[in-house]
Amino acid sequence: MLEDDQTLWINNDGFTISTNKSYLDIEVIHDFLSKESYWNKGIAKELVIASIENSILCYGIYEGNPTDGSAKMVGFARVVSDLVRFSWLGDVFVLTEYRGRGLSKWLIRVITDHPKLLGTSFQLATQDAHSLYEQYGFKSIGQIENRMARPLDWEAVYKGYKLSK
């Protein structure tokens, strides 16, 4: 499925992007999502772990190189996809102190250039980063009247994972 695809990218500024889930720092991801994000405030760590395990691709941005153990995780994104028709990008962030260095642009380029995601219908939701995503081919959804969604029900999610909120 993804075995032959690139899993590590290194830039000239000492940062690395990797899709190897074993390098992910769950504490950093959970801390950001539960305390700083507007979309997942208060989320349980168990649900963050489940979302990572159930996502086809997760991208970590690291200061340093995680392959030699000397890296600090500074950003994250995950992709849910069937790798044919549908992809969804979520939980994208770069830690505040690392913003303004082009890391978000690099991350989104790496993700959208993935050979098995290139042609898929790629969706996401954002309150404030429209101009970033537009640079990589994302557009407002046309014919919104034809789209449907079942709203997120956190109570049911927590119950399904046998967690209390």
List the helices and strands and how they pair.
Blueprint: E1 8-10, E2 15-18, H1 26-36, H2 45-53, E3 57-63, E4 72-81, E5 86-94, H3 103-112, E6 121-123, H4 130-134, H5 154-160
Parallel strand pairs: 5-6
Antiparallel strand pairs: 1-2, 2-3, 3-4, 4-5
Short summary of the structure?
With 165 residues, the chain is of the alpha+beta class. It has helices at residues 26-36, 45-53, 103-112, 130-134, 154-160; strands at residues 8-10, 15-18, 57-63, 72-81, 86-94, 121-123. It has five helices and six strands; from the N terminus they run ββααβββαβαα.
Describe this structure in words.
With 165 residues, the protein is α+β, with helices and mostly antiparallel strands. It has five helices and six strands; from the N terminus they run E-E-H-H-E-E-E-H-E-H-H. The radius of gyration is 16 Å and the shape is globular.
Give the tags.
165 residues, single chain, globular, alpha+beta, six-stranded mixed β-sheet
Q: What is the number of helical segments per DSSP (H or I, 4+ residues)?
A: 5
Which structural class do you get from the secondary structure elements? alpha+beta
Mean pLDDT: 91
Distance between the termini: 36 Å
Radius of gyration: 16 Å
Widest β-sheet, arrangement of strands: 1-2-3-4-5-6
Q: What ranges have pLDDT less than 50 throughout 5 or more consecutive residues?
A: none
Give the overall shape, derived from the CA principal axes: globular
Strand tally is: 6
| SSE string, helices as H and strands as E | EEHHEEEHEHH
